[in-house]
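Holo prediction. Input below; ligand is 3-methyl-2-oxobutanoic acid.
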Amino acid sequence: MSTEISIKRITAKDFLEKKKKGEKIVVITAYDYPTSMVADQSGVDAILVGDSLGMVVLGYESTLPVTMEDMIHHTKAVVRGTKRALVIGDMPFMSYQVSVEEAVRNAGRFLQEAEAQAVKLEGGREVAETVRRIVKAGIPVMAHIGLTPQSIHQLGGFKVQGRDVETAARLKEDALLLEEAGAFSLVLECIPKSLAKEISDALTIPTIGIGAGVHCDGQVLVFHDLLGLFERFVPKHVKVYANLREKMKEAILQYAREVREGIFPDDDHSFK
Ligand code: KIV
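Structure of the complex:
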């Protein structure tokens, strides 16, 4: 008889239940096997394999160079590290903008090849039909509005969105259109917290905030930001919960010193 306890994976439907019950949803990004395992074992509700991969893991200046092949490769590793968290694959730039058919095919690759359970894509009303068609194919979609990093050249940089009356009204309309198209949740990135509250109150699907204040139904942070592993810049909305970069440096410095001084390997780490 197997003694293994089976762990039920969180689903997109559970996100809706959590909003109904007023339970906050915890999301974190991850890009590989060991870190997704740590996140999963810490009890987060979902892991987003974000295209932030391009900046925090691959060292690009933006998320734009990230390809479908990069995303599938890293999503496979993340799925192998998880048992409980919903794994959401982020659709990279140009994987869903050219045609709805290409978008559905690429979304399908996240589930079929990488075994993720949902996908995310950026944009408002202009992607509503794409969202509808991907959902129709049986693939849960997380939408994403506000600061959408794949459009930084159009937005003029990494800037807070929805500060004036017109763009705030447009973002609210976009949110309603994406819910209507079938998205199971909506990321709100870098918008004023009052607008995030208004949108969260207007929707039945949960909002997941990043730089959007406390009134969202859940929060997402980038793994490397939260743990002090990304040194290029720390955005205002990021709370650094630990400085692992310093811890890693200390450990590697100690290792290097011990090798140079003939302290490592000692007898405990050698074979007789
Ligand atoms: O790519 C990413 O990590 C994201 C989150 C910041 C929402 O899109």
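Residues 12-241 form a domain with the TIM Barrel fold (CATH 3.20.20.60). That is the main takeaway for now.
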